[in-house]
Design brief:
The structure is a homodimer. The first copy, chain A, is of the alpha+beta class. The first copy, chain A, has a 5-stranded antiparallel beta sheet, sandwiched between helices. In chain A, strands 4-5-6 form a 3-stranded antiparallel beta sheet. The N and C termini of chain A lie far apart (about 55 Å). Chains A and B meet through strand 4, strand 5, strand 6 and helix 10 of A and strand 4, strand 5, strand 6 and helix 10 of B. The first copy, chain A, binds a DNA duplex through helix 2 and helix 3.
DNA sequence: ACTGGCACTCGTTACAGTCGAGTGCCAGGA
DNA sequence: TCCTGGCACTCGACTGTAACGAGTGCCAGT
């Protein structure tokens, strides 16, 4: 039952070879390319055990072995060390993130960087509003019955929304509204705002009451309900590497999944503990992504986490490398955010 | 030399059959499925002429004919009428666009709608800043040496940018800065702003001079230089329909091109005249997109054009249908924008 | 000017045979 | 007890051949 060290070494060798060659690996090739110190026959016996335990499988009789999702899982958990970044990669990260002028810029650069470094599809979640605080709320009159509400979060995110007022509101009243909402909400965490917004309505002077009521609805929608989360994506062209052998021949389900923000958020957004998360094959909950793996982690200024980022690729991916890259990029982005 | 009516009818029949079946079409099948009133042999003679003129070609000897880019061009220009939308499609458009709360929302809904209707990749350009006017500029103090500049355009677009001031600026001065820039720039077309920004610096009171100088740089970058244009994309999964037969087997170049904003802007952004534009195969300037066609048009409130939208797909696409959809969606979006 | 007929091309499919990578198992040896 | 060399076996990949048929070009006849 227990797998001894050599069997684990064999599994590691199989994973490494298969990831790099993309071809089922046989016992003979294994002993040639790794110093296992035993003969092919011995390796074959070990392979038989590994297969019985579900860590590897044979695509056909008389073919080499291929790791199963379970095999990759064991590899990631116990058989691989995080690969240190090369100096070139380190430099690329620094160079790429220097000169970003605002949050949008940071996110776009990050996602492209990650796609380029890992040669996978990269996903970056904008700093979550739920984990941000309100820095400032601005009300810009568009017409007498329309306002543009602009919300600036401490993470640098800016959301705007048109407000249709129930009736005309003079400029002075807009000034008052602006003062009131900022006094009440500025500095507060988004998640704490609903009762405060409620209070705003109740405490508002009579003549501001209708406008404030409408405004409060939009405020709640903007601060907590509505598309709350945003996502940036890059590197979809990388899905076509490995000439359709990955993803069992069709990119369709993958591309479909990537268009659903909800899916992406579930994949990279829920990184509660700050540790890196690896989802292998059908460990994720989406049928469309059964043939894919995801490496993700949280990022944020200092120790707090404000969002997630990660990469998606075939289960046959370079886990140690990708884990290292994802972590490194997350750390750099965190530092960048901390400067604001 | 001149193509008589029957030869044109044959070409039209070939295009229609090939688009719907995706298989090279032969002379016998043609006369069976269309009322041409002549025998296969006659059609063959016509086909020979059409091939000589470069409108169709044979993938191999002993295969049917396939339209060339030139053939599609003739078809689009002279042989097809714009297909009227079905009531269901009309309803889908209306339903989809109702309830959009702001510009972001409108753009996202539009691009998804277009992708769904045409079953192609859809692209929507945000209203171009170059064609917009400044509605309001807001300066929000982040710290004593940092401002958040928020620019609101009359099209509803909102751009923000962090400003690093050369030294601390008191709150009163920020108020003055805000007043000055709005007095000078509000209501102006973006393209007219550079000299005005220059004037702002020259006319600024001495103690505001350094801050205004920095601000002016950022203003110019935000208003005219920097990512100026934004793009929304949807329906990439539609590229996988037609099982890799389109796009000569590899989606890679297409996906790569779709990640370049510059490319997309060139494809759908330059619609100067308000007429619908069709780019077939290598008529576009990008090697990566030689196997693709683009149908695009401009949109905007009323007669003015503020941006472009369109779809991209295999050269073997339903041109009349797609042209109709793109036009219809553009018109609806224009109406929606006119309401703001 | 159109049509029917005919010879020809050539990609597709089916089938048979060979090759070889890789396996499982077993008997013998450290 | 564990490892190893040997051996028979499996089965996918590849090759070559043959039959098939969709489609063509051409030509003589109406």
């Amino acid at each position: 039952m227990g797998l001894d060290d050599r069997k684990l070494a064999v599994l590691r060798a199989i994973v490494e070879d298969y990831v790099s060659t993309q071809e089922p690996v046989g016992s003979k090739a294994l002993v040639e390319r790794h110093q296992l110190g035993v003969s092919p026959a011995t390796v074959r016996n070990d392979m038989a055990v590994l297969e019985e335990e579900g860590y590897i499988r044979q695509p056909h009789t008389s073919a080499g072995r291929v790791p199963t999702d379970r095999g990759y899982r064991l590899f990631v958990d116990r058989l691989s060390r995080v690969k240190p970044l090369s100096p070139a990669e380190r430099r690329a990260i620094e160079r790429f993130l220097v000169g970003a002028v605002d949050l949008d810029d940071v996110v776009h650069r990050t996602v492209r960087l990650l796609a380029q470094l890992t040669r996978q599809v990269a996903v970056v979640q904008y700093p979550s509003l739920a984990r941000s605080s309100v820095r400032h709320l601005e009300l810009v009159p568009i017409s007498t019955t329309r306002l543009m509400l602009v919300m600036i979060a401490d993470t640098g995110r800016v959301e705007q929304r048109l407000v249709e007022l129930p009736g005309p509101v003079p400029a002075d009243d807009v000034t008052d509204l602006r003062r009131l909402v900022n006094e009440k909400l500025a500095g507060e965490r988004m998640s704490d705002t609903p009762p405060l917004v409620q209070a705003l309505v109740e405490e508002a002077p009579v003549q501001l009451r209708p406008a404030m009521t409408t405004l409060s609805t939009v405020l709640l929608e903007t601060l907590v309900e509505r598309h709350e989360e945003r996502i940036a994506l890059a590197g979809t062209a990388n899905l076509t590497r490995g000439g359709l052998l990955d993803f069992q021949g069709s990119l369709r389900p993958i591309l479909e999944a990537l268009e659903e923000e909800v899916v992406l958020l579930k994949l990279i957004g829920e990184t509660e503990p700050s540790t890196t998360r690896v989802l292998i094959g059908d460990e994720n909950e989406f049928d469309n992504l059964r043939a894919a793996s995801v490496v993700s982690t949280g990022y944020g200024p200092g120790a707090t986490i404000v969002g997630g980022l990660g990469v998606l690729g075939p289960t046959r991916m370079d886990y140690p490398g990708n884990i290292a890259m994802v972590r490194a990029v997350a750390r750099y982005v965190g530092e960048l955010l901390a400067q604001n």
